[in-house]
User: What shape does this take?
Amino acid sequence: MTQPEGQLFDLGYQHYDGPREGRMRARKAVFADGFKTTLGLGRGASAKILPMLLFAAAMAPAVVLALIASLTDGLLDVPGHSIYYQIVSIVLLIFAAIIAPELLCPDRRNGVISLYLVRPLSITDYLAARWLAFFAITLLLVYSGQIVLLAGLILSAADPMEYMQDNWLDIPRILAAGFLLAAFITTLPLAVSAFTDRRAIATVVVIGLFIISAASAGILTSCDENHNRSRSERCEPLTGDAAKWFVLIDVGGVPTSVNRMIFNAEDDGQRAQLTAELPRIVPIGWYVILTGGLAFTLWWRYQRITV
Amino acid sequence: MEAKALTKRYGQTIALESVDFQVQEGITGLLGPNGAGKSTAIKLFLGLLRPTSGSAEVLGERPYESLEVRARLGYMPEHDCLPTATTASEFLTHMVQVSGIPPSQARTRSADILRHVGLEEERYRPIGQYSTGMKQRVKLAQSLAHDPVVVLLDEPTAGLDPSGREEMLRLIRRTGHEFGISIILSSHLMGDVESTCDRIIVLEGGHVTEEGAVAQFTRETETLLIDVDGNREELITALANRGINAVIDGVSLAVQLENEEQYDAIRDSLVETGARLRRLSPRRHQLTDIFRNPQR
Assistant: This one.
C-alpha cells in the first residue's frame, strides 16, 4: 500500500500583494473586452457568425477586384481604391449598425456600467476604450481589403515596380481615407447607442437614419424631368442651385465624399457631381462637424448617466 | 473612511447635511429609512457623486477626485449588475483587471474568490442561468476579487430566501472578520444588521442620529420575558398573588424586574401552577427601537 505523500490545505482567503496597474490596466481591460465582444470571441458560435459574415462581405469586393485585375493582366480598367471604399462603406455601415451597440447597450441594460464607474476608470476612459476597440476592428477590416486590392493591382501590372512608382500616393490616401471612414462608422452607431439600452432599437435607428437620409437627399437632388437637356449634360435638379447643399443630408455619403476628395476621384453620379460643385472645405467641414458632434453627444450623454 | 462636514444637495433637496462620522475596521451597518441619505453617502464614498461641501475620504483620499483609490474599494449594488451571457469566471477575471490587476493574477484571484463564495463548480456556466442566490454571490465576489480595503454592500440580502439570506450573511461575517476587509452594510433589515454588524451609523433626514457599537443598542432591559407551555392565565394569577404584575407580550409574559427576590417568586409560581417553562430571559433592546423611539 502506498503511503500518502502530500496533504491538501485550504489556506483560506489570501490577500493580494502583486502589482496594481491602476487606470491604464483598467483602460486596456475595457478595450480588450470591447475587441472580443465585437468579434464574438469567448462567446457561443452564434455570436461569431455575424462578424465573420460581415468580414467576408467586406473582403469580397477587394478579392473580386484583385482577381479581375490579375485575370485580365491589367488590360481592364479595374475600379480602384476609392471605389472599394465606397462599396465597402455600405457593408461597414451595416456591420457597425448591428455590432457597435453591443459595446454599450448591454452594460447599461444589465447595470454593469455601475461596476465600471466605481473602479479606477473615468467615464471618458470607458467610452474611449470602447470606441477604440470598435475603431481598431473597423480599421483592420478596411485596411485588410485595401491591402488585398493593392496586392492584386501590383501583381497584375505589366511592370509591378513601375506601377508602385506611379501609384505610391495611393498608400497615404488609403491610410487617410480608411482612418476617416472608420472613425465616422464607429462614432455614429455608438452615439445612437448612448440613447437606448436596447441593441435592436439602436440598430434600427442607425439603419433607418442611413436609408431615410439617403432617400431624402435622393429626392431633393433628383432631376427635373421637365427640364430639357442633351444626353451629355448633367440634369437640372428639382431644387435648382440649392441641390448641392441637400447632398449633405445623406449621412452615409459624408465619409464617401471625403474619400473621393482624398483620392481625387471622378464620379459621374448625380450626387457626386453636385458635391463637387461645393467648395472643398464644405464636405470636409461637414465631416468634422458631424463626427465631432456625434462624439461629443456620446460623451455628453454618458456624463449624465446616474447609477 | 471618514465624512467631514459632508453635505450633498440636489437643487433644493438636502440629502446629507454637514454629516461627520468615521468608519472603523470590522462591519459597520448603515441604517435609515428611505430618503435618509444612505445611498447618497455610499455614492459619495465610491466617487460616483461629488459633495456640495465637506469631504468623503477613503484611505485619506477623495474617491471623486482620485481614481486610483477606487482600486482599493469594492461595491455590491442592490440592483442587477451582472451580464447574462458571460460565465462568472470570465466576468470576474475581467472586473479584476478593470480594478488594475494584470491578467495572469486576475484569473487566479477570480478562481480563488469564486471558491470562497461557494461557486467553484458553477463558475463556467453563464450567469443568466444562475439562481438569485448564486447571482448575489457573484455580486459579492466581484466586490471582493481585487482584494479591496473597504467594501460597500447595498442591501446584499435583497430577494433571497431565508436560507440564502443566512448564507449571504455568513459570507459577509467571514469577509469582515476572517478576511480582514472592512465592510459597510446598508440595509433596511434590522435583523441582518443586528446579526452581522459590529457597529452602526443611523441616518435620518440627512443627519447622523445614532452611532456606536451594536451591543450598545441591543443591551438587556429591566424586563424579564417568561415563555411557558400552558397554564399561562394561572401563572399570571399566581404571580399577582406574590405582588408581581405580569402582562401578556406576544407569546411571552413580561415582568418588570424590581429586585432579585422576584426570581424566587417566579420560580414558586411556576411550581405552583405546573406551567412548563420554555424560556426565562431578560428582554434586549432591538435596533428597531431606534426608529420606534428616537428620543430613547
Observations:
- The radius of gyration of chain B is 24 Å.
- Residues 201 and 211 of chain B are 4 Å apart (CA to CA).
